[in-house]
Structure formats: structure tokens, C-alpha cells
Amino acid sequence: MYPQLLKLLKAAKLINVTGNSTSPFSWTGGKTLLVVIGDSIDKGPQSIEVLDLWMSLTPQAEKAQGRIVHLLGNHEAEFLADPAQNKSEAFRAELTQKGLSVDQITQPQYPRAQFLLSLPIAAKVGAWIFAHSGFYTHMKWTDFKNTASIFLNYPTLSTYQNSFFIGAWSILEAKKWEIKSIPRIGVEEALTASRLAGIVFGHQPKAFGIEGECGISSDRRLIKIDNGMAPEAGSHEGSILNFPNPSQLLSNHLNDLPKMTVNAILPTGFTQELKIEH
Amino acid sequence: MIDHSKVQATLRFCGVLFFLSSPVLALGPSNLASGPASQRGETAPVFSPLVIQNPGVVEISPEGFDRVLAISDIH
Description:
The structure holds 2 protein chains of 2 kinds.
Chain A: H1 2-11, E1 15-17, E2 25-27, E3 32-36, H2 47-63, E4 67-70, H3 74-81, H4 89-97, H5 103-106, H6 111-117, E5 122-125, E6 128-131, H7 141-152, H8 181-193, E7 198-201, E8 215-216, E9 222-224, E10 240-243, E11 263-265, E12 271-273, E13 275-276
Parallel strand pairs in A: 3-4, 6-7, 7-9, 8-13
Antiparallel strand pairs in A: 1-2, 5-6, 8-9, 10-11, 11-12
Chain B: H1 4-21, H2 23-27, E1 57-60, E2 67-71
């Protein structure tokens, strides 16, 4: 939800209000890397404002030697795969209400479509993967990277119809894999095979039995950050995951995980320890 | 007699035509945003080709950043 997002970004000292109508917010995050793990659209009434905010802040962050990396969520991929599908009903209604056409969000001559069509499927930051559903398995990272590159080099809307993007067991859409032993072991084995430490994922507001806040698995390799900000997930105030010592993300030694500092920035600006899975 | 200079000039011309008509150029990010958004009848921020994030995945070293943050499912 857009107002909650603004509150969080201000609390994390990432933006200031400029009062300028063409660029209402300025990046104040300096050398911060902010990874947005998808699902900026659908459900809420201000998806366009959210998209425009990321598009406006992304170049500002780069100029300040920071960076915003916005990844695909299943809602972005599903909308691109089939803009007429039921899940995007609220988003289409928002477009109509704002005098925008679906083409303006999906056809590459328009800037918002350029933004959506440019989104990567995952990010690797040091030894950590960031991906929407977090269901990373079957492939070594180099193979996954090459496959994603083939799909997304010059994507068309039909690109997103592939099961690599959407489907019950995709890296954007899989659910409850973290509570079932076989898929969870598969994910952790895939991480180990690629010398990776862990995964940060969204998509499931109740993952690990934790609702309304960020959570971490007992072995500290899996971090869920869907705080349930969407109306149907409880309109929670949300939080921003924070790694205050970025160099710690470089280590793929499991022995280092307990020493890694990670917390959540709350709308108040205070930080909170991550809740550990039940 | 074959006039080699004319052949070379023709080949160069064909090469330019091929390059201009190539799908890579037509679809490439640098060709996507042609002019300010306001001239295209909308008010979205122009998304700079300099920060196109594709293709596929992003790999970043956390070194050099003061902190790494993440957020998702804003909707």
C-alpha cells in the first residue's frame, strides 16, 4: 500500500518529500542497496504511484552510488503474461480510473512497460539470493542465470507465460515449500551446491507461521519479508529488512550465519530483531 | 571490369540498411524511450536506459554499500 510504503521509506531514511510535482520524492539513501522483491502492483488502489516512485528513485539512487533493484513478483509476471486475467482485475480498474490503457503498461514504447519488461527474476547479492517466492531449486546458479538471461534478454508478453515464471512451482509463485521437508531440503541443497548462503523471499505473508513482520528460519538460511501489507493480507504496517553490515552477505560459510546481523526497520524508524520460525 | 570501389560502397550501404532494420536495434532499450513522456501523452517518469536491469538476473557485490535493505509485496 502506497501510504505505508512512503512511511517505511521515510523511516528508513531513503526518501525526502521535495514538493516538486514532477519528482515529488528525492533519494536520500546514499549508498544503500534496496532490493524490491516484487509485487508492487495489484490489490492496492495505487499501483501506478508505486511503479512511478520506483522509476523516479532508481536513477536517483544510482547517482548517489546507491542502487534500487526491483525484481519480478508473480503479480508483475502474471499481468504481463495475460493482462486480462482475473488476478489483475483491481489493477485494470485502477488503470481505467486513471485514464491509462493496458497497452501503456505492457507495450515497450511506454516507460512504465519498459520498467516492467526490464525486471530481473532474481538477484544475487554476495552469497544470498533474493527472489519473490524463494523456491530456488533444481539448477545451479550459473545455469539459472543463463536460463533467465535467455528468457529476459528481449522479452515479449508471451515470455512470461512460461512455467519458469508462473506456475505452482516457479521461483515467483511457489507457496508453502518452506514448511514441507522435501522441497525445503531441495532448496537448501541447491543453495549449497551453488555455494550460496541463503534466500530472502516474499510472497507468503504467513510463512514460518509469522504474520505482519519479517521472519527467519531456525537455521538462518531463509528469510521471509512479506509483512502482509496488502489489504487481503491484513494491511499490516510493514517493515524493511536491513543488513547493516553488507560485507557479511559475502560469506557462504554456514558457521557464519549465527553471527550475521539482520533486523527489520519499522515505520517508527526503530529496528526489530527478526522473529524465528515456530 | 568490376568497379571495386562501387561494390564496396554498395556493401557498406546494405550493411547500414541491415543494421538499421535489425530487431536488436528496434527493440533495444536505448531505442525504447523516444523523447520525454509528456510528448507521448502521459506523465510517467522516463525510465532511463542507463538503469535497465535486464537481462535475467542481477548480481551485485554488497561491498561498497553502506547497508542492504529489502522489501516486498507492497501492492
